[in-house]
Design goal:
mainly alpha; 4 helices; 117 residues; elongated
Length: 117
């Protein structure tokens, strides 16, 4: 999701994903650390589901931020989220961003430059 064929937008999209996920973890962690009723879960899922396609086109950082709490709901099975899940989400995202930058942008940009020459 972070990696794009257009190398000019690569670093920007990687940065947006990292920042969006970081703030999504903060917001999601605060909201979901306490047990919520099924009604509140439905409201949150419906709201995020309703705005996600708009956000993906308009602002990738905010899209990443909104999708992180939705992922928490999915991974926690409706139970309060654990600290391990929060740490895992941050770690996996940042490792993924580093991989996308090194292999998808840095190396890919070098290959494209040699093709142009």
């Amino acid at each position: 999701m972070v990696l794009q064929r257009n190398t000019s937008s690569g670093p920007s999209r990687i940065y947006q994903r990292a920042v969006g996920t970081f703030f999504g973890v903060l917001i999601g962690g605060i909201v979901f650390i306490f047990p919520l009723s099924i009604l509140w879960m439905i409201v949150i899922i419906a709201f995020i589901g309703g705005v996600r396609s708009y956000l993906k086109v308009r602002n990738y950082a905010v899209y990443s931020m909104a999708m992180t709490p939705l992922l928490f709901i999915l991974l926690s099975g409706g139970k309060p989220i654990s600290f391990e899940l929060i740490v895992d989400r941050l770690m996996y995202t940042f490792v993924g961003c580093i991989i996308a930058f090194v292999f998808g942008y840095f190396i890919w940009a070098g290959v494209e430059k040699t093709k142009i020459s």
